[in-house]
Design brief:
By secondary structure, the chain is an alpha+beta fold. It has one domain: 2-Layer Sandwich (GCC-box Binding Domain). The chain has 1 helix and 5 strands. Strand 3 and strand 4 form a beta hairpin.
Length: about 80
């Protein structure tokens, strides 16, 4: 096989959840979901871990944001 012209040496980027003191005031709570808020026409989950909120990446479906919140709660043993 031919060697690659440019070796793939770029670091792999992983998502680090943002840590917020509170959900932003301009976010709207989504009815029927525990942790999901509407922020800039996207669904974002906020989960209280320790003394700060973790913010999910933006999702197009509220169910996806709620699943992310449930996963974060189970990983951090948050009730």
């Amino acid at each position: 096989m031919k060697p690659l012209r440019q070796p793939n040496t770029r670091p792999v980027l992983t998502y680090q959840p943002r840590v917020e003191p509170v959900p932003p005031a301009h976010a709207w709570r989504v009815e029927g979901f525990k942790d999901v808020w509407m922020l800039r026409n996207r669904y974002v989950a906020f989960v209280l871990v320790g003394d700060a909120f973790r913010q999910s990446p933006p999702f197009t479906l509220p169910e996806s944001a709620q699943r992310w919140a449930i996963q974060v709660r189970s990983e951090n043993d948050v009730g």
